Amino acid sequence: MSEDIKKTINELHIYEKKLLKELEANPKATPEEIAENTGMDIKSVMSAAGSLASKDIIDVDKEVEETYSLTEDGLKYADEGLPERRILDVLAEKKQIHMKDLSSETGVDKKEANIAIGWLRRKNWAQIDKGVVNITDFGKEFTSKVGVDEKVLDYLKTNADGVKLFTDDLKDGFKKLAGRKNILNVKKETSHSFNILPKGEDILNEGFTIQKQATQLTHQQLKDGEWKSLQYRPYDINAEAPVFFAGKKHPLRVIIDEIREIFLNMGFSEDKGSYVESAFWNFDSLFQPQDHAAREMQDTFYLKNPLTCDLPDDNLVKLTAETHENGGGTGSIGWQYDWNEDIARQSVLRTHTTGISTKHLFEHEPPIKMFSVGRVFRRETFDYKHLPEFHQVEGLVCDEKISFQNLLGTLKEFYKKLGFEVRFRPAYFPYTYLSTETEIYLEEKESWIELGGAGMFRPEVLKPLGITQPALAFGLGIERLAMIRYDVSDIRMLYKSDIKWLRELNLANGVKL
Ligand SMILES: N[C@@H](Cc1ccccc1)C(=O)O
């Protein structure tokens, strides 16, 4: 028990302590008095009280007090009499008045006269018969009496500061007046009073000192040793705190940067291509025949502007043409068709980043270790795993002793560093042999999905580029990795700008906050 009390005391704010002490000395003190006596402002008193109340240390009572006074109309009635009284006075003489003459005969204006008729009937001072107002016997008697409501009217007039409570003999009259529109004003005032509860008594019995508590240390306090004598207010580490959403990188950007870092660390250098590429680099340099299905409009975006691109070095074009037509000097018989320069000039949105690899091979001497990350474009229909625009990371290693083993090892290592386990299966690409595809298992869909392709560039690719050493190459999709990392079952989520998802996503491990 006492341990509890000590802990509670320990956690009291200095304002709470001040308020409690003041209440002990002055149990009836109002918040205003407490503010005055402790030097706190009223807001701090009220918030300290609220805090003490939430811990059952004191009780806060709220009382609303109403003060009544007369409105402008009310004051006028108090001076001149209620409209029904003024009519009654005239009726006492005339006995009856025609409705249409009511206002002119009595001096009560039309609007008020209408209201007065209701009250004349209700008070049984008059009756209306065929448009004529007749005084009743009760009305006659009443001319010399004062009604309860009229007494209250008078009372309020003499108590111009307002009345809080009506004595019993005035209560009925007050109710009547209060029921009429525009006669009474009411001002509401709330007042608070505090009571010490048993727990508060225990705290006071236990006793405490009021000492300024340190919430923040200053450089000076640390330097001069004052920190040793300060009293610290403990804080509740379990208290609910607002969640802040700081700006951060897009999840896709995060994974792209991670991939770049992995390749840089593995000793690759980075190259860049452009979205718009000639069919020559995108297809022809990769020994893809000009009637290849992938080149068709359904798969590839062809551009109107620029409609064509320049072809590279004449000799390279010549060697490429020969290789396509009959294998040139590669030992292959080629595709056995007439290679067309104009088809090679067409400009396309690159369908993969592999054109960067062939260009890189043409422009560099082995040994080569190159990677490149970028967007590629395909005429795909959207679905949970397809986008017409996505990112690939391209890789190329070319040196004397490079083998298919190295390719598998490189890929395995890369995926492992990203935290994925993949499987390889045989595949076909016109530009590689051996070729493979990497796949990953999607638990939710209970199926393997393809992550990318890879292989050893064929001599038909390498020879025209002037390369005699073997080269491994790969082109891997990035969005599908992001999908798995961030646990989204639909690839479109990555491009939706769903602010809630983006905010709550923990980028480090894909787990929601
Ligand atoms: N370019 C292929 C991948 C690939 C790259 C390099 C070698 C072999 C295959 C694709 O986009 O799917």
Automatic annotation (TrEMBL):
Keyword presence, Hydrolase: no
An example Gene Ontology molecular-function term: tRNA binding
Keywords assigned: Aminoacyl-tRNA synthetase, ATP-binding, Cytoplasm, Ligase, Magnesium, Metal-binding, Nucleotide-binding, Protein biosynthesis
Pfam families in UniProt: HTH_24, tRNA-synt_2d
Catalytic activity: tRNA(Phe) + L-phenylalanine + ATP = L-phenylalanyl-tRNA(Phe) + AMP + diphosphate + H(+)
Cofactor note: Binds 2 magnesium ions per tetramer.
Main subcellular location: cytoplasm
Binding site for L-phenylalanine: 354, 392-394, 431, 457
Class in the EC hierarchy, top level: ligase
Location of the Aminoacyl-transfer RNA synthetases class-II family profile domain: 367-504
Any one of the GO CC terms: cytoplasm
Subcellular compartments: Cytoplasm
The protein's required cofactors: Mg(2+)
Any one biological process term the GO annotation gives: phenylalanyl-tRNA aminoacylation
Enzyme Commission no: 6.1.1.20
Keyword DNA damage tagged: no
Superkingdom: Archaea
Similarity-based family: Belongs to the class-II aminoacyl-tRNA synthetase family. Phe-tRNA synthetase alpha subunit type 2 subfamily.
Complex and partners: Tetramer of two alpha and two beta subunits.
This protein's name: Phenylalanine--tRNA ligase alpha subunit
Natural source organism: Methanobrevibacter millerae
